[in-house]
Write a structure and sequence with these properties.
about 260 residues; two-stranded antiparallel ribbon
């Protein structure tokens, strides 16, 4: 059973596409309206829909039936059941590929990158991923230290870019994505200036790192965070972060393009 069949039941409520992520994707694609985009690991289709609303045609590829059934119908989105390692699309059938905060779930990155390259005519592969080694620890890891330990299991960005280069012969551009304070897509570090949100079960349920973690560890961290927010201790320790409008927590866009 796909992972998100079990953890993705409330996903659409808290994982709302953020307009700055959408804008960055479109800027990096550099393709005209009407181009065909494959969204790999499309989830509930939030970013597929955002692109379709901007005039693109989208193949949304997602293995989880629970995620697919939460999607809204759109005339320019065609849903396909499949995995990144065996994409259900013919060779050179799309103009570009996007995959947003998904590659850490793929079982075989090399095969996934080969498949993405196979289905594209000549456009780019656009990925959004993260590498916590690229930024200082944020306060979240003081309450949930296993988040840091879990994230260290994922490949560093430089190793990911090497894998893409090796398997696609594409040129890679790495673009830092500074997290705004008011992100609408509530992935792991998105609420860095809104600690109260991590107390909400539905927010945690939409974050795979929380959904897969030991409930006892989560409960301990939530209790500690709630107590510190209530007493003013959180503000005393970390309140300066509320003066910032964006921070670098290691999130990166990768653009893999065919060399001219």
């Amino acid at each position: 059973m796909p992972l998100y069949d079990s953890i993705g039941k409330q996903y659409k409520k808290t994982r709302v596409p953020d307009h700055r992520i959408v804008k960055t994707i479109i800027d990096l694609l550099k393709l005209p309206q009407g181009s065909i985009i494959a969204d790999i690991g499309a989830g509930t289709g939030s970013y597929s829909q955002a692109l379709a609303n901007q005039g693109f045609s989208v193949y949304a590829v997602e293995p989880s039936s629970v995620m697919r059934t939460q999607a809204s119908e759109h005339p320019q989105i065609k849903w396909l059941t499949g995995y990144a390692e065996a994409l259900p699309l013919p060779d050179k059938s799309v103009d570009a590929v996007i995959s947003i905060l998904t590659i850490h779930h793929f079982s075989d990155l090399e095969k996934s990158f080969q498949e993405m390259h196979r289905i594209i005519k000549s456009g780019p592969i656009i990925l959004l991923s993260f590498d916590i080694r690229l930024a200082p620890k944020i306060w979240l890891c003081d309450y949930f230290p296993w988040l840091w330990e879990d994230a260290l299991r994922f490949l560093p960005i430089n190793e990911i870019t090497s894998l893409i280069e090796k398997n696609t012969q594409r040129v890679i551009e790495v673009i830092p994505f500074m997290l705004p304070y008011d992100l609408s897509d509530l992935f792991t570090a998105a609420a860095w200036r809104r600690p109260e949100l991590y107390l909400q079960p539905e927010v945690r349920a939409g974050i795979s790192a929380f959904a897969l973690a030991d409930p006892n560890l989560i409960e301990s961290g939530v209790k500690s965070l709630a107590a510190d927010l209530s007493s003013g201790e959180w503000e005393k320790k970390y309140g300066e972060i509320r003066q910032l409008t964006e921070i670098d927590v290691g999130y990166r866009f990768l653009k893999a393009a065919i060399a001219n």
